[in-house]
Amino acid sequence: VNELKEALADYLRTARGVRCSPEQILITEGIHQALDLVTRTLCNPGDHAWIEEPGYWGIKNILRINAVNFSAIPVDEQGMIPPDAGETPPKLIFVTPSHQYPLGSVMSLSRRRQLIFRARETRSWIVEDDYDSEFRFSGQPIPSLQGLEEETPVIYIGTFSKTLYPALRLGYVVLPKSLAAPLKKVHNDLYRGGHLLIQAALAEFIREGYYAAHIRKMRQLYSRRRQMLVELISRQLGEHYLGSFSSNAGLHMILQLPAGSDDAVIAQQANAQGLLVRPLSRYYVNEEKRSGLLLGFASIEEHEMTAAFTRLADIIRVNTV
């Protein structure tokens, strides 16, 4: 639906600093379809990609399915650390610069410029997953990597799963002008469009300002819940359990476990008690892993949080030295 593309282009220019026209936008069935489309269209089997270490498991699966090799590139408090020139040049570089998933660091301006320079040098495409960018609870919003310079080699992807609800199954891709026509053709041949009524309703929701108002309201709610979780971790376990890169953003936090803790066992025991946490070690590809838990806080009411966290803290104490 063109109305949704127009409404999205206006919203992304204003809210995220994305440089785009409606013609550059492609509507997808969520993030996975967007990642698959980009990988299938721009890579041949045996090509190379860079992903973040630790990083989103969905990207690894899509690359493996499409027979694309990848290097897991470490991240620090400034985001992905671009490797030395000796590393195999990638076709695609996957990053979450606004809120690194899962560690939570924000990519610094110098690192962003470095990455764009490297992508131009190696004729690569950066795939920017603007993960959790709407839910930043302090400081100024961080503009997109895509909008940093004119004609950046960046494919920008986003979704309504976190801001509205996952079952909506609607995402979007902002394509560089040179890729817009070919990727739209491939998308049409592979997937076909759908959800036209939902797209029309969503376009009106954005255009009338309800979407921006909803984001503002939820940002306040999630900020309170996040603050409460920070206090619970500090009080019941200690401040050294707070993840070291944890920027004041997003819908989950990293609870850092002591070295040598088996986060998979702790997560399994917590899940058995109905506490849905994920082990951080599972997000790593290379041998060097950090032990921790991903704690989602967005969907748990404040009055339920203390009791739930106390149960989790008990499980952690039993399993750590």
- Major sheet description: 8 strands, mixed
Assembly form of the protein:
single chain
User: How many strands appear in the DSSP assignment?
Assistant: 11
Shape: globular
Distance between termini? Answer: 56 Å
Number of helices: 9
Kindly report the spatial arrangement of strands forming the biggest sheet: 1-8-7-6-5-2-3-4
Beta percentage is 15-25%
Structural commentary:
The chain has helices at residues 2-16, 30-42, 57-65, 109-122, 177-190, 196-207, 210-236, 263-272, 302-319; strands spanning 25-28, 48-53, 69-76, 79-80, 92-95, 125-129, 154-159, 171-174, 252-256, 277-279, 292-296. The radius of gyration is 20 Å and the shape is globular. It is 41% helix and 16% strand. An eight-stranded mixed beta sheet has the order 1-8-7-6-5-2-3-4, sandwiched between helices. Strands 9-11-10 form a three-stranded antiparallel beta sheet. The chain starts with a helix and ends with a helix. It has 321 residues and is an alpha/beta fold. Helix 1 packs parallel to helix 6 (196-207) and helix 7 packs across helix 9 (302-319). The protein is built from nine helices and eleven strands.
What can be said about this structure in brief?
This protein is α/β, with parallel strands linked by helices and 321 residues long. It has nine helices and eleven strands.
